[in-house]
């Protein structure tokens, strides 16, 4: 397991992290070794290991960076919404826009989990932590959107549905076409929010009945 001591910030560290992050996302974490990163960044091996004592430390820093960007994006979208329902639409719209951005290659966390399936691996654990935060955040917004009605759907189940649609869109966009995947995801979010207006709690009946 990598060290938990925070490395000092420096221009060299940021260059190494930025280059590694791009390579990890584009080519895969296991496919990119330290030698490859050093070939891309004009720095020494000693500098690399001063900032990242192991490759694992670098991988964790990469995923923490993605986590920070995601939290910021969700927070910005949430603040932009004029209501909780509009906040959910804004979060969904931002994600749909990501699908069509140049260089999009899926969810960094899903890709990392595929490469590191061991639940005890620090890389896998940071993926689980990120997803727990995401689910809790979306659950909170759905709870705000549904209000206090006794017949409201379960906000967590709605959030799980949202997360499943997100995973599908991010995983299948490059196969099914990014424009189609983005459009389908947007419609899915609208469908979830329609429950707010229809009061159709039965849609999320855990018995599976409709």
From TrEMBL:
A Pfam family: TetR_N
Signal peptide: none
InterPro entries with a match to the protein in the record: Homeodomain-like_sf, HTH_TetR, Tet_transcr_reg_TetR-rel_C_sf, TetR_C
DNA-binding region, residues: 33-52
Chain ranges passing through the membrane: none
Keywords associated with the record: DNA-binding, Transcription, Transcription regulation
Entries under SUPFAM superfamilies matching the protein: Homeodomain-like, Tetracyclin repressor-like, C-terminal domain
UniProt domain HTH tetR-type: residue ranges: 10-70
Protein name as it appears in the record: TetR/AcrR family transcriptional regulator
């Amino acid at each position: 397991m990598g060290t938990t001591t925070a490395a000092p910030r420096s221009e060299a560290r940021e260059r190494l992290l930025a280059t590694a992050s791009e390579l990890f996302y584009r080519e895969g974490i296991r496919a990119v070794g330290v030698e490859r990163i050093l070939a891309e960044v004009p720095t020494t091996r000693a500098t690399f290991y001063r900032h990242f004592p192991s490759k694992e430390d670098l991988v964790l820093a990469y995923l923490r960076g993605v986590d920070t960007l995601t939290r910021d994006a969700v927070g910005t979208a949430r603040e932009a919404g004029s209501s909780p329902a509009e906040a959910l639409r804004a979060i969904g719209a931002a994600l749909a826009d990501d699908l069509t951005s140049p260089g999009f290659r899926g969810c960094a966390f899903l890709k990392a989990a595929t490469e590191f399936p061991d639940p005890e691996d620090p890389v896998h654990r940071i993926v689980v932590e990120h997803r727990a935060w995401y689910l809790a955040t979306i659950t909170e917004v759905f709870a705000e959107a549904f209000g206090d009605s006794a017949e409201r759907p379960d906000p967590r189940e709605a959030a799980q549905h949202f997360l499943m649609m997100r995973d599908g869109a991010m995983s299948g966009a490059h196969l099914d076409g990014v424009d189609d995947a983005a459009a389908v995801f947007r419609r899915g979010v609208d469908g979830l929010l329609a429950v707010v207006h229809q009061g159709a709690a039965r849609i999320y009946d855990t018995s599976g009945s409709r």
